[in-house]
Amino acid sequence: MPDALLDLLLGSRCTVCARPGRVLCRACELALPRRPAPAWPTPSPAGLAPPLAVGEYAGALKLLVNAHKEERRFALARPLGDLLSAAVEAHGGPPSDVPLVLVPVPSRGAVVRQRGHDPLLRVVARAAACLRAHGRPAHVARVLRVLRRTEDQAGLGAARRAGNLAGSMGCARIAGPWLAARAAQGDRGHRVVVVDDVITTGATVREAQRALEEAGVAVHGIATVAATRRRSGPTSGDRVPDYRFGARPTSV
Ligand SMILES: [Zn+2]
After folding, report:
1. How far apart are the C-alpha atoms of 162 and 206, rounded to whole Å?
2. What single DSSP character describes residue 251?
C-alpha cells in the first residue's frame, strides 16, 4: 500500500497547516519555494563546489524535512525529492543527455538503525526518479561511507564542524574509480552532484566532496533541499556563519 494512502487511512494531517487529509495539502505544496538559488554559507569552506538550494531552512521546508526525518512521515519523500531534483537539475545545464549522478552524504549506521530508516536516501531516490521522468538521465551512487565516529554537529561552529568531520568519510574502493572515469570525460562526462537535505556551515558536504576528490571523482556541485540562515551570535568559540540565501561566496 502506498505510504500516502496509508497516511490518509490512518487519519493524517497536512504537515504545514494541519488540515486533515494528505501529509501535504495541495495549497501548501503549491506555496513551496521551487527556484534553486546559490546557497553559499558565510563563511564558506575553502574550495566548496557551488551549492544550490530551493529555499531557506525555515517555515514549511523546515517542518517537512523534520517530519519526514523524525516522525517517519514517509510520504513526504515525494515533495522533498521533487524539490531536491530542481536543485540537482539546475547543475545539469546542456547537453541535457549528460547523466547526473546524485551522491548522498552518508549517514552513520547507528543513526539509521535508531531512526529505523534512512530519510535522505528516500528523498534522493525520489529526486533521481523525478529527473528521469523529465527526460534527464540520473542515478544515485551510494559510494560514500562514514569511516569513523564524529561528535554531533549541532551546536558546533563552522571551524569546529570542519575539524570534527575532516577525514571522516571515504569513497568505496571499486565504485570510486568507475565514477571517476565517467566524471572525467569533460562536457560529455557524468556530472557528479553531492546531495543532502540541509546545508548549514557546508562542512558536511565539503567533507563528502573531499572524499570523492580523494578518489579522483570530480564534483560538479552541491544540491540541497534547504539552506540554514543563522541569526544567533557566536557559540562554542567559533564564528557562527551568517547564511544569506543567494549571497556571493565568501571563503574562509
Ligand atoms: Zn496544508
Report:
1. 8
2. B
- What is the pairing mode between strands 100-104 and 191-199? parallel
pLDDT at res. 149: 76
Return the SS3 of 169: strand
> What is the pLDDT at residue 7?
56
Name the nearest CA neighbour of 78 among 1, 130, 22.
130
For 112, 205, 207, 208, 218, the CA distances from 49, given in Å and listed in that order, are 27, 9, 11, 11, 10
Q: 21 alpha carbon to ligand 1 midpoint, in Å?
A: 9
- Name the percent of the chain lying above pLDDT 70: 85
b/e per residue, 185-201, with b = 16+ CB within 10 A?
eeeebbbbbbbbbbbbb
Distance 243 CA to ligand 1 centre (A): 27
User: Minimal CA–CA distance to 73: which of 1, 13, 130?
Assistant: 13
Q: How many helices (H) and strands (E) does the chain have?
A: 9, 8
Q: Give the whole-angstrom CA distance, residue 196 versus residue 245.
A: 17
Residues 30 and 83: beta-carbon distance below 8 Å: no
Give distance in angstroms: CA of 203 to centre of ligand 1.
33
Chain centroid to CA 116: 19
Residue with cell 527556484: 35
Q: Which residue has the cell 501529509?
A: 23
Query: What is the distance between the terminal CA atoms of the chain, rounded to a whole angstrom?
Result: 49
227 and 51 Cβ atoms separated by less than 8 Å: yes
What confidence score (pLDDT) does residue 4 get? 58
CA of 15 to the centre of ligand 1 (A): 7
Q: What mean pLDDT is predicted for residues 92-118?
A: 85
